[in-house]
Amino acid sequence: SKYVAVNLASALERCSGDTELLSQVVSETFEKARTEQLQLIRTALQKGDAADAHFHAHSIKGASATIGFDGLSKAAKALDDLVKGGTVEGAMPLIEELQEQLNLAIEYWEKHTQALANALERCGDDQELFYQIAKEMVQDVIPSQVEGVEAALAGGDVKGLHAAALQLLDAA
Length: 172
Prior knowledge:
Elements: H1 8-14, H2 19-47, H3 50-66, H4 70-83, H5 92-122, H6 127-155, H7 158-171
Helix pairs in contact: 2-3, 2-5, 3-4, 4-5, 6-7
Organism: Cryptomonas curvata
Protein name: HPt domain-containing protein
Domain HPt: 19-119
């Protein structure tokens, strides 16, 4: 599977730490791109309408950057950079990459949302407890485990790397 370039921490910051708002904005952004904007871009490209393609690609670029989906924003920017110059020549591979990045982002978001719900459920739906554990994991546990992975890599210790990677996976 391909890597999804995402920075939810910055997106959450832009939503003033409101996870429900972030969830709503992400869902609306993906839904609009999936059900409207990509088809409008394809139609514009078929008609040779670079200006219309630019309008919608630029919109996806900005909205996806705002919600922290950098890979999706980068794919939209590549298309936007081409069509804002007034040409649609060579745009088809870029719209296909944009479609793929959107699909990956949606899949990532669905998995993230489910994992978050499962983790919260394991905390008895106690958000304070959940955030306390998450903060401890981010500040202490995971950095320590990453150090273990790095040390095993540096030392060529395959068994140690495997053990450290399993611990990191378990923590995640």
